[in-house]
Amino acid sequence: MPVGRRPGSYVCGIDAAMDVIGGKWKVLILWALDAYPSSRFGELRRLVPGVTEKVLTSHLRELEQDGIVHREVYEEVPPRVEYSLTPLGTSLNAALVPLGVWGREHVLEG
Amino acid sequence: MPVGRRPGSYVCGIDAAMDVIGGKWKVLILWALDAYPSSRFGELRRLVPGVTEKVLTSHLRELEQDGIVHREVYEEVPPRVEYSLTPLGTSLNAALVPLGVWGREHVLEG
DNA sequence: GTGGGTGGTTACCTCAAGGTGAGTGAGCAG
DNA sequence: CTGCTCACTCACCTTGAGGTAACCACCCAC
């Protein structure tokens, strides 16, 4: 179960990490799941304004394959699916904090 | 002189930072300029295997516009152009270190 | 029956990032 | 003379990520 979409072709760690978070909305999904753990699909759609259902689905599937998010299906009617960060996802988010601080200080306030 | 390609439309700091480093080869360029300061164009082309001249040029231009790299032209024959990280670029690279460590530990060695 | 909410799937389309290959013009090696 | 280096520029083309919209089964409230 390799992490990343092009295993074995990474030049360095940043290159590899960029591949995992490279989707247009992935860091926003991670940010949302960090702020609101165990979110349902519809909640995420509202938490990440602008993302379409198709793209949200595919991003979540990729993050799940990479071991970043956990997908829990409850066999109920109506169906319920909850997404949460795995420990790996939590560690990824922690590694993203300095980048977020940099962006806030130098891009948003720049 | 705004930093980033879509000023004013960022949701959060990570979103903004991702825009600055969003090019396919930008983090590799930053990594190369950190390891080999004041590199010439041809050196960068060799340090970032696979990048084409056109894309390397445009990525360097964008990084220059964002205040990440400095471009120094020496009016000589043959022409000489040296690229280096600005203080802002150095701080960006510092903010990328944890992400690089994460990628090395969890993707490359995963 | 109509509409809404649940969590998706499917087919189709767009568009911009990136790749390809040629050209530039001065100088230098062979 | 040929070809290479330097640091690009230009015109063209490809590709795939992402966007659009329809559709699915199921249930509830109105």
TrEMBL record, chains A, B:
Superkingdom of source: Bacteria
Q: Which Gene3D superfamilies is this protein grouped with? A: Winged helix-like DNA-binding domain superfamily/Winged helix DNA-binding domain
Q: Which InterPro entries match?
A: HTH_HxlR (IPR002577), WH-like_DNA-bd_sf (IPR036388), WH_DNA-bd_sf (IPR036390)
Task: Enumerate the GO terms in the molecular function aspect.
Answer: DNA binding
Instruction: Domain (HTH hxlR-type): give its ranges.
Output: 12-110
Enumerate the Pfam families for this protein: HxlR (PF01638)
Q: Is Transcription included in the keywords of this UniProt record? A: yes
Q: Which UniProt keywords apply?
A: DNA-binding, Transcription, Transcription regulation
PANTHER family in the cross-refs = TRANSCRIPTIONAL REGULATOR, TRANSCRIPTIONAL REGULATOR, MARR FAMILY
Query: What is the protein name for this chain?
Result: DNA-binding HxlR family transcriptional regulator
- The organism named in the record is Streptomyces olivoverticillatus
